[in-house]
Amino acid sequence: MIFGVPEAMINLIGTIVATVLTLCVFSYLLGIRVLYRLALHVLIGAGVAYAVVVALSTLYTRVWLRWTDASAHGDVWMMGYLVSGVVLGVLLWLKLWRRTSGWGNISTGYLVGVGLGVAAGGALRGTLVAQSIATATFTGTDPLAFFIGLLGTLTVLISFTFTATWRRGPLKAVARFVQGLSAVGRFFLYIALGATFAGVYVASVSVLIGQAQLVGRFLDQFVLPMLRPLLSQIGLG
């Protein structure tokens, strides 16, 4: 029970809202743009409201509560850390105005730098290093699988070589060989991208099936009971 409302009622309201919004989105196929735009506005409004709530909750838990705790214990370093974060946040708001947008570049540069560092570290540790270790420690019990894995890894890395095509003279044969390996690497890339697209497609179809089941449940529980008396009167029930 949330705010005195039973959980079953909340689930019922959620089902009704989800069904109505799903029908509004599908109305785009019928040329009814108004209902489609209404669903978009609801989606954007809900997203903005959620972002505002998360931002206020973050400011309260990670700034205000930490500030009160640091001031109570006399932790100067923590207080300076919090003040620097607040200052960067205020500078970011200055990008809303053209005259003060230059000051906002400080916060933007900090965000971009941290984002690139985290992305590069994640790609290095989670992808390149993991893939290299998996390739290096691949057991030789299945020679064919080992050969395909090694060939795919090496040729995909070689496929990003773009300078070998400009070789002339004696190195032209080497350039042709590198081009052939690049073609094999692109073939493996096509397989990987196709598998990724198939996974995304299957996930989308699964979501569509879930929404269709939700709509069917709503029609069976609420619409059909109201239509059964009418259908029985006309001899169809």
Structure explained in plain terms:
With 237 residues, the chain is mainly α. Helix content is 81%, strand content 0%. The protein is built from six helices and no strands. It has helices at residues 7-26, 33-73, 76-93, 101-136, 143-158, 172-233. Helix 1 packs across helix 2 (33-73). The radius of gyration is 29 Å and the shape is flat. The model has no long low-confidence stretch (mean pLDDT 81).
Give a short synopsis of this structure:
With 237 residues, this protein is mostly helical. The protein has helices spanning 7-26, 33-73, 76-93, 101-136, 143-158, 172-233. It folds into three domains: 1-74; 75-137, no CATH class; 141-237.
- Beta-strand share of residues: under 5%
- Which ranges are low-confidence, i.e. pLDDT below 50, for 5 or more consecutive residues? none
* Shape type: flat
Order of helices and strands: HHHHHH
